[in-house]
Amino acid sequence: MESPALIVLVAMLGGAIRVSTPFMFVALGECLTEKSGRVNLGLEGTLVLGAMTAYAISYHTGSPWLGVLAAGLSGCVLGALHGSICSLPRVNDVAVGIAMMLFGVGVAFFFGKPYIQPQAPRLHSIPFGFWSDSANLKSALNVNPLFFVGIAAAFALAWALRNTRWGLVVRTVGDSAAAARAMGVSVNGVRLMTTTIGGFFAGVGGAFLSLSYPGSWNQGLSSGQGLMAVALVIFARWSPLRCVGAALLFGAAGAIGPSLQSIGVTQGYYFFNAAPYILTLVIMIATSSAKHSAADMPGELSMVK
User: How far apart are CA 121 and CA 65, in angstroms?
Assistant: First the structure.
């Protein structure tokens, strides 16, 4: 019989993996977008719309992986719309992002009403807890394949930004639009591309919410994870690989409450559930100084202009 301490640790590990997966995808999308010098605060709406789209497509086709693809494509649409509007003269990225967040959430709620009750096929997890007789440990160690897809995407994105011409162009646009234009690069075109790809990542993160954990569609599914991912990117210093570690940290904070509940500790449960939001506040305060904010930040971001 496993000790309570082991159960809590393993439950926190499993919970961190589950809770961190949507954070990871949204953070990777925002990291790429900000690398090109654009902020997209609309990824909360993209996350919610991706969750609804994935659930609806999975319900109608019987294929959750088609739902994941559809969620990513819906994110591309919102990302492309955001990028197109921001390419217009005298348009503020932050204001457009807030508008797109409200738009994405509104569309998801409007078209998602018929899918609140029906049960759609879900993504199957990989059982890494086969070695244990404990039902709690087996449940904690069921890892969804999208988690590994997210890690692979982070490595691929980090490599591409550092070692390819495409990555050089994205970083140049993000650091100095004037230098990119002198090279003959279309600044708006690059930012439109990165915002669209970033939307795809966020849409896939939404698919995880509805098709894996918690595994249903309802209007309170996201709980602000898309917005918290922006703080996560700042904490990760605009590095795709550090985004994975930061997402796991946020995920572990979110898993504290359920992990303690698994061994019967219920006192302070709601306080522990607030841990991710408290962590977000602490990170935003810790990174608010001008000197700290300037480190590693793309020079074209609105917040440093």
Answer: 10
Q: What is the pTM of this model?
A: 0.90
Name the residue ranges covered by the structural domains of the chain.
4-304
Q: What is the DSSP secondary structure assignment for residue 115, as one 8-state letter?
A: G
**Domain 4-304: which topology?**
ABC transporter involved in vitamin B12 uptake, BtuC (1.10.3470)
Q: Which residue has the higher pLDDT, 246 or 107?
A: 107
3-state secondary structure of 100: helix
Q: What does 142-192 look like in DSSP terms, one character per residue? A: EE-HHHHHHHHHHHHHHHHHHHSHHHHHHHHHHH-HHHHHHTT--HHHHHH
pLDDT at site 269: 60
CA gap 214, 229 in Å, rounded: 18
**112 exposure class (CB count in 10 Å sphere: 0-12, 13-18, 19+):** buried
- The answer to whether 33 and 82 have CB atoms below 8 angstroms apart is no
